[in-house]
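QA checklist item 7 of 12: single-chain prediction sanity check.
[x] sequence parsed
[x] length recorded as 216
[x] structure emitted
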Amino acid sequence: MIPRVALLLVASSVPDEGRIVFMGNPGLVRPGFVSTSKSEIKITFSPDGERMLWGTIGWEGGAGGWDIWESRLEGGQWSKPAPVSSNSSQNDFDPYFAPDGRGVYFFSNRAGGVGGDDIWFAAFDPERGAYSPAENLGPHMNSTGDEWAPILSSDGKRILFASDGRGGRGLHDRFTSERKDGALLPAEPLPGSVNSTDDDFDAILLEKDSVLVSSR
């Protein structure tokens, strides 16, 4: 049985001394609307704050069992959630909106990948409000194992993700791939003790990419 997971938000700030300060208590994101009796994971917002996407497990009306859903801010109100057009009949999960607002990164085990769960990218046209068919990001990032939880640096030049198919110190380790001249360079593990012998994934970057917070 898959455990139920809910989406929570809590406000925070980073003062001059570099400490992360959380203000108030965490609260469910739109109970009954975004957060339900099913599982919802990994919320992401477009840079303009007008679209939010999240992963779902077991929601009815999607293309597969694990789907990405979206709500749009219209007239100060969030629209009824709808599955994004880039979903497949397989698992689609862990969405992350690109910093320039021009697409969404996510993992999927759909046909056409390198193996297992791969990182894919669906371009987004803000003028039309439409997603293009998803593209696999290729073997410099993906492996015959599973790749999860893509996020990007604030300048969009580095993709940070977790993989259990590229070697490393443990199970899932954190890797990064740099984009140069429009192409992705071969992925490399994060240095030092960032990775452990256990699972390391679901990272976020704070304070202009100088702080990494992750699950272990």
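[x] summary fact logged: Residues 158 and 178 are 4 Å apart (CA to CA).
[ ] second reviewer sign-off
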